[in-house]
Amino acid sequence: MEEVGGRTVPEELGVLIKETQAVLHQRMDEVLRPLALSVPQYACLQALQDTPGITGSDLARRAFVSRQSMNVLIQGLEKRGLVERSDAPGPRRERATILTPAAVALLVQARVEVAGVVGTMTDRLDGADRDRLRALLASCRDALLGS
């Protein structure tokens, strides 16, 4: 099998993807910190806006945290006035979580900041390369999901 720097090509690809993810997370954290948001909080708010009625389990997956951590995260966002939970249980006995107007405004700012980070990451790629990267990463993700 072909090697790059003492690693097989698949190993090298795995390392590059992990390193890129780690630096992306760090840069996102840096731009979200002044907004008093962590990356998981941002991911949670974004998922709540993008997918109204999302289940707690799906929300945890989208924010890359455990279900228990998501409950703690939601409680913190609720105390800050960024989300509200309904009193009545919905499907699967879960209480619906919705964004407050303050969260919607904060999320607009946060998305601009995160888009800047992603822009920096992809600025050296032309449009065709960005489209190809997106397709390749989606294909890799789908292969791991078995779809």
Mean pLDDT: 91
- The CATH homologous superfamily is called Winged helix-like DNA-binding domain superfamily/Winged helix DNA-binding domain
- What is the topology, as strand order, of the major beta sheet? 1-2
Strand content: 5-15%
CATH topology: Arc Repressor Mutant, subunit A
Give me the strand/helix succession.
Answer: EEHHHHEEHH
Characterize the main sheet: 2 strands, antiparallel
The assigned CATH architecture is: Orthogonal Bundle
Q: Whole-Å distance between the termini?
A: 27 Å
Rg calc: 18 Å
Helix content: 55-70%
| Uncertain segments | none
Describe the structure concisely.
With 147 residues, this protein is mostly helical.
Keyphrases for this structure?
147 residues; 4 strands; mainly alpha; 67% helix; single chain; two-stranded antiparallel ribbon; 11% strand; 6 helices; Arc Repressor Mutant, subunit A
Give a written overview of the molecule.
The chain is mainly α. The chain is globular and about 60 Å long. The model has no long low-confidence stretch (mean pLDDT 91). It is built from six helices and four strands. Strand 1 (3-4) and strand 2 form a beta hairpin. The chain has a single domain, classed as Winged helix-like DNA-binding domain superfamily/Winged helix DNA-binding domain (Arc Repressor Mutant, subunit A), CATH 1.10.10.10.
